[in-house]
Amino acid sequence: MRSTLIEARGVTKVLGGIVPVTLVEDINLAIMPREFIAITGPSGSGKSSLLYLLGLLDLPSGGEVLIEGQSTAVMTEDERAEVRLTRLGFVFQFHFLLPEFSITENVALPMRALGNLPPRAITARAEELLESFGLADHRHKTPDQLSGGQRQRVAVARALANDPPVILADEPTGSLDSASTAQVFGILRDLVALRGKTVVAVTHDLNLASQMHRRIHIVDGRLAKHDEFVGPA
Amino acid sequence: MNLILTIAWTHVRHRARQTLVAIAGVMTGVGFSVMMAAMMEGSQDDFIRTLVDALPHISITDELREPTRQPADTVYKAAEFHGLTPDVRRPGIKNPMATIASLQTWVPGALTPSVQSKAVLRFAGRNLTTSIIGIDPRTEADVSNLATHMKQGTLNSLYRASNAVLLGDRLANKIGARVNSNITLASAEGVSMNATVVGTFHTGFRMTDETTGYVLLKTAQILERQTGIVNEIRVRTRDPMAARLISERIGEQTGYKSISWQEAQEDLLSAITLRNVLMYTIVGAILLVASFGTYNIISTITHEKTRDIAILKSLGFRDQTIRAVFIVEALLVGLVGAVLGWIFGYLLTRGLASLEFKTPFSDNNHLPVLYSVNHYLLATSVALLSSLVAGYFPARSAARLHPVDIIRGAT
Question: What is the pLDDT at residue A233?
Fold first, then answer.
C-alpha cells in the first residue's frame, strides 16, 4: 500500500473582486508516488491554477491540500516555503532561471537555501545534475548563452536539486521546438522511470499526455475527466 | 559567500551605473557631513581653546555672592531706617595672600593675584581709556599666555623701570608709543603717574591688543590709591573643563564671587550648543537626501527583479530571506558609499583647511578644522541607518510579492 504524496480535498480557488472569478472548483484527487500525470484542458480552464494550488504556491479559497498526508491549511508561509524547498520541485513554461547567475549557480540555489550541504558538495551535486542532462560543458554559462531546450533542462536540474519526491511542471515544453520537446519530455519520463519521482505536468499537448500514466482533464475549473490510478507503466 | 550576500552582490553588480549613482549620493552625503562636522567642531574647538587660553579659567573677584548685610539688618529681624549711611565695604579681597595660600592647598592648578583698574593713557596729545591690569610677573606665566604673546620685552621687563607698563601692540601703534616711550596714566581715583613702556604684546584679539596694558601689582595699587589691594585672583586649572566645579567650591570656601570661564561665557556656549543642533540637523538632512538615491536604486532593483523574487519564492525561499537580500543590497550601497565618503570627506576637509581667510578679529588665517574619527563614525552610522530604512520598504514589498501573480503574468 503506497501512501498518497499529494491530495486535494474539495479544493476551490475564487479570485475576489467586483465580479468574483472561480479558477478551480471542488477538485478532489490523489497523487501517488512514481506517477506521471498530465493535467490537460483548454486555455483558461484552471490547469495551472490547480498546479499552483497543489504546489503550495497559492492558497485555496476552500478545501485543503495535503502533502504526504499532512494538511497544509494550517501551515504558516514559512512552513509552506519549507515544503516547497524540500518536497516539491517546479519547472515552468519559461525556464525562470536567474539571468545573472551561471547555470551551476542556478541549480545550486535551492541547495544553498536549504543549507544541508557544504559549498563544495553543493557545487559537485549541481555539476553532477547538469552532467546527467548533458549540460556539463555549459556549466559556467549563463542562461542567455543556452538554447530554449537547454535552459529547460537546467530548470529540471534545479527542480531536482534538493531531491524532492514530486516535480510539478507547468507547460514544460510549451515554448520549445519539437526536438527540444521530445528531449525534455524524455527527461521527465526518465525521472519517473529511473529516479522514482512523481511528475505532474500541465500540458496542451494531447500526444504527450497520452504517453503519461494518468490524465486529469479540467474544464472551467472543474474535474471533467479523471483517469483512475493504474500505476506506473 | 553567504547566499543572501551572493544574490545581493550580483544584483548591485549587474546594475553598475544605477548603483554607482546611489553610491555617489551616499559618498557625497558622507563626505560633506564629515567636512561640515570637521569645520563646525574645529571652529568651536578653536574658539573654546582661544577663550580658555585668553581668559583665566576661574576669576575670583572682590564682589560678594550675597549683598553685604547692613548692621541694622544684623541686629534686628525687621528694620526700616531712613537717612542712614550704609556701611561701606573696603574694596578688594581680604587677606589675598592668605586666601591664595589656602586655595593652593587643594586647587589643581596655579593662582595669581591681580588688580583690575581703568586709566586714561596720554601720549603725544592723545588720550585713550585703557584697562590696566596689575600682575605679578613671577606667577603670571602660570595662569596666562601673556609671556608667549610678548612681541617686545618680557614680563620681567616690568621690573626694569619704576611704573613700567606693557602695552598691547595695537594700542602702542594707535598712540605712536614705542619701547622706552614715557606715557602718562591717569586713574579714576585721580592719580596721575608717568610710566615707561617696557614691552608690547600681541594676543591676536583685537579688543585686548587695543585697550589693555599690564603693570606691576604695586603700580596698579597706586593707581587705585589703595596699598596692598588685590581685587582679583586668577586661577588656571590643569583641566579647563573642571573649572566650573572648582569655581563653585572656591566660591563656597571664600564667599567671594568666583566665576569659571564656562559661566562667564555661558551665552556663547549656549550659542555653540544651538549651533551643534543646527549642524547635526544639516548633516542628518544631507544624509537623508542621499538615502533617497539608495531608496531609488533598491526600489528599481526590486521592481526589475519581481520575476526573480517569484522564482526564489517558488523554490522555497522564505520571506525573510527575500527581505534580507534587498536590505543587504541597500547596506552594500550605504557601506561602499560611506567608505568612499570618508576619503572624499577627508580631502574636502584638507582642502578647506588649506584655504586662507583674513578676519579683522583674529590672526588665524586658516579655517580651523578638527579631524575626528567620531565624525566618520557618526556619518557612517547615519548613512547606514538611512540606507537600511531606504532599503527596508522596497524589501518589505518584495517579500510580500505573491509568486503566482508574477508567474501568471510572465506566462
Answer: 44
Mean pLDDT of chain B: 85
Taking the C-alpha atoms of residue B397 and residue B379, their distance in angstroms, rounded to an integer, is 28
Chain B partners within 8 Å of A97 (Cβ): 311
Asked if B35 and B345 count as a contact pair (C-beta separation under 8 A), the reply is yes
What pLDDT band is residue B203 in, cutting at 50, 70 and 90?
confident
Q: Is the dihedral of CA B292, B293, B298, B300 positive or negative?
A: positive
Contact B312/A109, CB-based, under 8 Å?
yes
Give yes or no for B307 touching A (CB within 8 A).
yes
CB contact under 8 A, A57 and B403: yes
Select from 3.40.50.300, 3.40.50.720, 3.30.70.1520, 1.10.10.410 the CATH code of A34-48+76-216+224-228: 3.40.50.300
Q: Do B317 and A77 touch (CB under 8 A)?
A: no
pTM: predicted TM-score of the whole model, two decimal places: 0.69
Question: Which of A165-169, A227-231, B50-54, B109-113 has the lowest average pLDDT?
Answer: A227-231
ipTM of this predicted structure: 0.87
Distance of alpha carbon B209 from alpha carbon B287, whole angstroms = 43
d(CA B331, CA B385) in angstroms, rounded, equals 9
Q: Which residue has the higher pLDDT, A89 or B69?
A: A89
